[in-house]
Amino acid sequence: MQWFSILAIYGLLWVLSAFLVMPFGLRTPHETGETVEKGHADSAPVNFRPRKIVLRATLLAAVLFVAYYENYVNGWITLDNLNFFGDPPVKDLGY
Q1: Which of 4, 6, 37, 75 has the most other CB atoms within 10 Å of its CB?
Q2: CA-wise closest residue to 12 among 50, 55, 44, 57
Q3: Alpha-carbon torsion (26, 30, 33, 35), positive or negative
Q4: Alpha-carbon gap, residue 18 to 20, rounded angstroms
Q5: What angle in degrees, to the nearest 10, is found between the helix axes of 3-21 and 50-74?
């Protein structure tokens, strides 16, 4: 596998991981008992910590990438394993 492919796949996994871990640990003003100032969204988090999200996303993406790479090298799950519907029917073209 080329280094650019590794970087691209890790980047995609990192973005996916960031969206997966982002909602964990966030609290809204209603949950913490704080008042919402005029002009602010009621659902906006009061304890947003981007460094923690970046760290969690990096760790999760690393774990997912290691699993992906091990599968790539060892071939545990292939396209043949994911063919749930069988082979497509062969059409007789009348030749």
Answers
A1: 6
A2: 57
A3: positive
A4: 5
A5: 130
In tens, the pLDDT along 32-76 reads 888 888 888 888 888 889 999 999 999 999 999 999 999 999 999
Q: Can you state the percent helix, strand and coil of the chain, rounding each to 5?
A: 55, 0, 45
Please say whether the beta carbons of 10 and 65 come within 8 A: yes
Spatial contact of 47 and 25, defined as CB atoms under 8 Å apart? yes
Residue 4 confidence class, pLDDT cut points 50, 70, 90? very high
pLDDT at site 6: 96
Rg (CA), the chain: 22
For the chain, the first-to-last Cα distance in angstroms comes to: 42
User: Nearest-5° angle of CA 40, CA 44, CA 50?
Assistant: 125
Report the Cα 48 to chain-centroid distance in Å: 20
